[in-house]
Amino acid sequence: MLEVAYILVAIALIVCLVYLTITIQKAGRMIDETEKTIKTLSSDVDVTLHHTNELLVKVNVLVDDINVKVATIDPLFTAVADLSESVSDLNSQARVLSKKASSAGSKTLKTGQGLSALRFASKFFKNKKRRNLMGKTILNPF
After folding, report:
1. What is the pTM of this model?
2. Which value, in Å, is the radius of gyration of the alpha carbons in the chain?
3. What is the C-alpha separation between 50 and 57, in angstroms, rounded?
4. Cα separations in angstroms, 116 against 6, 82, 105, 122
5. Where are the alpha helices (DSSP H) in the chain?
6. Rounded to a whole number, what is the distance in angstroms from the first to the last CA of the chain?
7. Whole-number Å distance between alpha carbons of 109 and 103
8. Is residue 79 over pLDDT 80?
9. Neighbour tally for 67: CB within 10 Å
10. pLDDT score for 103
């Protein structure tokens, strides 16, 4: 009986060794694939870094060019801002002048109406005086 137990233990040990061998082989293949992937990624990363460096050089050149152009245009924007402020001041003064002209216009209108009333009254009294003179005999003092 003891011999049967030893045989069963030996068979179990052989089965464990077979499964362990298969597992180790699969792990070895997986490690090989991982190494290949890492090598591919390393070369891809090197290419990407090289392209990135080239791109950064081009971007730096563009930024320098833009900075030069902005420095050239900056006085123009300052002049436009000053002009805008001047136009705003001119608009404010035009509003003030318009208000003064409006009030002067209304005063002129009132004065004009008063003068019209005086002309009418003057004509009225002249006409009345003429009518009175026509009705009377005018003696010539000479």
Report:
1. 0.40
2. 56
3. 11
4. 144, 49, 16, 10
5. 2-135
6. 187
7. 10
8. yes
9. 10
10. 67
